[in-house]
Amino acid sequence: MSGNQASYTAEFRYEFAAQMGSLLNRRFLWFSGIMGGIGAVSTGLLLWMLFFSDAFDKYKADGKIAGPMLGSMFVFVVWTLMYLGSFLFAAVRRPPVSKLVWLSVLIVGLDGLINIGMDAFDLPMSFGILGFALSYTIAASFLPWSVRQALIVAGIGMGAFAIAKVTPIDGAFGFGGLFKVLASCLLILPGFFISWYRASSRLRDSQFYFLQRRYGEVRRELTDARRIHEAMFPAPMTTGEVRFTYRYQPMRQIGGDYLHINTCKPKAGEHEALSVVVLDVTGHGIPAALTVNRLYGELARLYAEDPEIEPGHVLALLNRYVRLTMATHSVFVTGLAVKIDPGHDEMLYANAGHPPAFHICADGTIDQLDSTTFLLGAVDDETFDSEMHSVRFAPGDRFIAYTDGATEARSSKGKMLGIEGMQGILSSVTAQAEGAWPATVLTAVDHHRGGPPDDDTLVIEIYRPVRTGEDRARSRDVLVSESVSP
Question: Which CATH entry fits the domain spanning 234-484: 3.60.40.10, 1.10.3660.10, 3.40.1190.20, 3.30.360.10?
Fold first, then answer.
């Protein structure tokens, strides 16, 4: 049994036991009070009939009550005191649930012994197995017994009845007594069926409400987790020499795609460089999101230690981290690292098993930037290739990256969009406003998809705006003023 399942089982059992305990406290008081009241009324009625009625004249001799009738009166009093005493004990002492359960089993079992004993010794007003069956059915209707507890009570009563019928006590020794025992089991079945049905219903209802409440708790926790998860994503940059925006569509409330951004403070006379890392963790949902959380911390550490770190080195260090901490759990990551230096119109990139990105030039030309090395965590440091590639990234150029939730989107006929389909979307769509590509691409992917998404989807656009002459002059003046300021 897994740890989560064991925790769930223990929590449910504890809660179910608490519910049954509270229910038993109420039901036991009702049951013992009603049975005690029936006993008191029956005893009072019996005394009235003995002393003020001719119904029992045959049990009177010389003005005295015969011994058998006195025995029945004594048994009735004991039976009544047993239930009333149990009622007072439960009402005043408030015993633990475990004691109350076995007290209920004991008194109903004694009820059976009393009824069957009166019948075995041929005492007046005895109801025998029928009286026990009646008490057992009432108890099963009131008390939240488990099937095991109901069987114990039935075993006590039927065991006593069997002893009475197959031994000379009752004078019906042999197969005739055995047949009576077997036939009398039919009288016990209604009570046992009631107890079994009610126990099953209580368990089923408790499981339903428990799971319903837990589902609500999990949804609230996932909402909080999604807010925390999305807080790790950077805000879009809509100003500067290099800008970016993105759209994220997790398959569930949280997912395993992640985007990390880091900027290098410019030196005198240079534009700010932008580093981007796109990661896609194998799997979906909470496990993938937890992995993203760890990778977020590792990336933050790497860029804090070296803000100018190059893409190939970033992926090499991430490969070591994933291989040592996650690959043993069959968790791997695809990664794409990019660094754009607008001062030299250059983009460096390294791709670790991630779907190909696309470089859209200002003139509309589309270049495919394929994977350059293995996915993260798959190989050791010596085998992992951290080589980078360089492309020109001039004003008006765009860089489109995405996770495999886009290319693996399937149509209603089961056809995947694929790399060619993604390139077709980028080629067929008319010119987009700055920052509009992610929404456009995601809309096209959703249109191709024949149902709900079956993977997380992240689409990113990095672009350099086309600068007018006035913008370039203003930018040059700002750079000059920064370079000469003390």
Answer: 3.60.40.10
pLDDT digits (tens, 9 = 90+) for 326-364: 988 889 999 999 999 998 899 999 999 999 999 999 888
What order of strands is seen across the sheet that includes strand 243-249? Answer: 243-249, 457-463, 398-402, 357-360, 366-369
Nearest to 196 by CA among 132, 138, 141, 156: 141
pTM listed for this prediction:
0.62
User: CA 265 from chain center: how many Å?
Assistant: 45
Q: In this predicted model, what pLDDT tens digit does every residue of 101-111 receive, in sequence order?
A: 889 999 999 99
| Domain range summary for the chain, segments of one domain joined by + | 3-214, 234-484
Alpha carbon distance 259, 312 (integer Å): 17
H or E stretch at 82: helix 67-93
Contact, 37 vs 31, CB < 8 A? no
Specify the amino acid at residue 32.
S
Enter the tokens of residue 476. Answer: 């040059």
